[in-house]
Specification:
The chain is 84% helix and 0% strand. It has six helices and no strands. Keywords: Membrane, Transmembrane, Transmembrane helix. Pfam families: SpoVAC_SpoVAEB.
Length: 118
C-alpha cells in the first residue's frame, strides 16, 4: 500500500519536473509547455504505454496534464472501434466533457465568490 503512494509521488514528480525544465531550460511559454505535455500523453497512449503507467503510478499519472492527452486518444480510439471515423470526434468529447465541464463550472463559481485582481 505504501509503495503505491511512493510511486505516485515519484512518477507525478518526474512529469512535473519535465514541465518545469521545459520552462527553465528550454524557455518555453506556458502554452507551449502545456501543449507539449498533452501531446506526449496522447502519443504514449497511442502506443499503449500510458495505461500501464496509470496502473503502476495511479494518481501520479492521472493528475498531471499528460493524462488529458491520454484521455483524448483513449476516448477517440474506443469510439472509433464502435462508430468508425465519426467516433474519433465524438469519443474525444465524450471522455473529456465531464472534466472540462467541471473546470468551467468551478472557475465560474470561483469568479463569483472571489474578487479577481486585475
Amino acid at each position: 500500500m505504501m509503495s503505491m503512494f511512493f510511486w505516485a509521488f515519484v512518477v507525478g514528480g518526474i512529469i512535473c519536473t519535465i514541465g518545469q525544465m521545459m520552462f527553465d531550460v528550454f524557455k518555453l511559454t506556458p502554452g507551449h509547455t502545456l501543449s507539449t505535455l498533452v501531446v506526449i500523453g496522447a502519443i504514449l497512449d497511442g502506443f499503449g504505454l500510458y495505461e500501464p503507467l496509470i496502473d503502476f503510478a495511479g494518481a501520479g499519472a492521472t493528475i498531471p496534464i499528460t493524462s488529458f492527452g491520454n484521455s483524448l486518444v483513449h476516448g477517440a480510439l474506443q469510439e472509433a472501434e464502435k462508430h468508425g471515423i465519426i467516433g474519433v470526434l465524438t469519443g474525444m468529447f465524450e471522455v473529456t466533457s465531464s472534466g472540462i465541464s467541471a473546470a468551467i463550472i468551478f472557475g465560474f463559481i470561483g469568479a463569483l465568490l472571489f474578487k479577481p485582481k486585475g
